[in-house]
Design goal:
By secondary structure, this protein is α+β, with helices and mostly antiparallel strands. It is built from 14 helices and ten strands. It is elongated.
């Protein structure tokens, strides 16, 4: 018994479904099964019953389609040989059942790209593999993909994830969406994670995405505070309880290195003397972090009876800018924006560069400047990857001047008067 493939609409000017076919002699019936693959008849080799691979008529996605058709042939031969070896009747009903189980992810040519994406995110959430921030990012990427499909009129299917898609999507994100390199690099990396999941779970056999390179990440200077800044903030009278609370939460994060989301885990029950014992809710394999509490941290905890006055992260980010404005930080600094190969230097107010994450960056930068080891710092912050840890370290002009002055402190006498 042999099998073959043919087009549903061989004379059409539009893409046609490709059918798998074989004949069951004992049943006296022809077995037909839709592969879900589509191709323009002009790109189909009628004699070879495969996509055209040479000449002007070759299909752009011929490799992907042929790979999928080969799978149908392989499964057909596997089932037939198994039935022969086990002396079991090889029937059309059995073949359909096996095909449904193997290829049910793409029945009847239905586009299941976004269905697969939703199953992927649902599975990860239910398995508690993601933090809320990660879930939010994947939802954002889904929205971007939907907008891309609509705005660029580029129908997203698994077979459509080609080099053309990569070029169009990159241009769309960095051109129309104005994403900078790091944002796009992160988003495309997450998209590739979804594609790997889809490949593993049988939604696609198109591996072309593996060759698609992300835009390289670049190190962008960020804001990190100094000891004098923290002193200035603590000594300022805001005459406003709301801003004072925001200031206190921010400074507490600066002197402990905690992420904003970890602050809600702080309570009297996990503070022993001058040490905070922090166990993250996710990641049972992670050890308990012991975080030293200096006098300022202890003062702030006692001020609020070990229950920090937390608000939503979005509101904290909004109000912390107001805190810095009231404290007199009205000067401008330079913001570097890199989009593709283009570098823009934009003057912005200092306060607008401050966020809740500035606190963690400040903690790491101050310890690094004081000569503390990466291993010591990572034990407090919980970083496993020292490369990630060092991305937080901000080297400012004062640090550079101080380093050069201390290293090259050379006694000298002028032999000849400088001209």
């Amino acid at each position: 018994m042999t099998s073959t493939f043919y087009l549903k609409e061989p004379n059409s000017k539009k893409e046609s479904l490709i059918y798998f076919s074989c004949y069951f002699k004992e049943e006296g019936k022809k077995f037909v099964y839709s592969t879900g693959e589509r191709i323009l008849p002009a790109h189909w080799d009628q004699e070879g019953r495969i996509p055209t691979t040479k000449g002007k008529s070759k299909a752009a996605n011929r490799g992907v389609i042929k790979g999928q058709l080969d799978r149908y042939s392989a499964v057909f031969n596997e089932i037939r040989n198994r039935c022969l070896s086990m002396q079991v009747d090889f029937t059309s009903r059995l073949l359909k059942k096996e095909f449904d189980e193997k290829f049910k992810k793409a029945p009847g040519g239905k586009n299941i790209f976004f269905d697969a994406y939703d199953e992927f995110t649902d599975q990860k959430v239910k398995n508690q593999e993601w933090k809320p921030s990660t879930e939010k990012r994947y939802k954002n990427i889904r929205n971007i993909l939907k907008e891309f499909e609509k705005d660029r009129k580029y129908k997203l299917t698994f077979n459509a994830i080609t080099s053309k898609f990569h070029a169009e999507f990159t241009d769309y994100c960095m051109g129309e969406k104005k994403h900078v390199n790091n944002t796009y690099s992160r988003n495309f990396g997450l998209f590739k994670s979804f594609m790997l999941w889809a490949l593993k779970n049988g939604y696609t056999y198109n591996e072309e995405f593996k060759e698609m390179q992300k835009v390289p990440k670049v190190i962008i200077p960020q804001v990190a505070l100094q000891k004098s800044d923290l002193e200035k903030l603590m000594q300022h009278d805001f005459k406003n309880e709301r801003l004072e609370r925001v200031r206190d939460v921010f400074v507490f994060a600066c002197v402990t290195g905690l992420r904003f989301g970890e602050l809600r885990l702080v309570s009297k029950t996990n503070v022993s003397g001058d040490t905070l014992h922090l166990k993250e809710e996710k990641g049972a394999e992670k050890e308990v972090r012991t975080i030293p509490l200096n006098d300022l941290a202890l003062y702030l905890l006692k001020k609020y009876k070990y229950k920090l006055p937390l608000i939503a992260n979005q509101k904290q980010n909004e109000y912390i800018k107001e805190v810095f404005e009231k404290a007199g930080y009205d000067h401008e600094i330079e913001r570097v924006v890199i989009r593709g190969k283009q570098v823009q230097r934009i003057p912005v107010l200092f306060k607008d560069r401050v966020s809740t994450h500035t606190a963690r960056r400040t903690f790491i930068t101050m310890l690094k400047r004081d000569g503390k080891s990466d291993k010591l710092i990572s034990k407090i912050t919980g970083h496993r990857d020292l490369k990630t840890l060092n991305q937080y370290y901000q080297v400012d002009d004062d640090a550079k001047k101080e380093a050069v002055a201390e290293t090259f402190k050379i006694n000298f006498q002028t032999v000849k008067k400088a001209e």
